[in-house]
Amino acid sequence: xxxxxxxxxxxxxxxxxxxxxxxxxxxxxxxxxxxxxxxxxxxxxxxxxxxxxxxxxxxxxxxxxxxxxxxxxxxxxxxxxxxxxxx
Length: 87
Hints:
The chain is mainly β. It has one domain (about 25-85). The protein is built from no helices and 5 strands. The strands form 2 sheets. It has a 3-stranded antiparallel sheet, with no helix packed on it. The radius of gyration is 16 Å and the shape is elongated.
């Protein structure tokens, strides 16, 4: 899933720092008894951000297609309902 996007031009031989905010919605999951199809919109379904490792990739495509792509491993400390998560 695309978590954040910004097009930048980096001149040859130069470096550039870019900051992107990855919002909690980009890695939330649906839990509860109704999690298939349109049921994800029911009141019984919950959107949560689960604890664990989230691997982020930077580049122009899926990491399988670009060896040596920039990546970061981020740890989410606790599982929380999406509406309680802060950026």
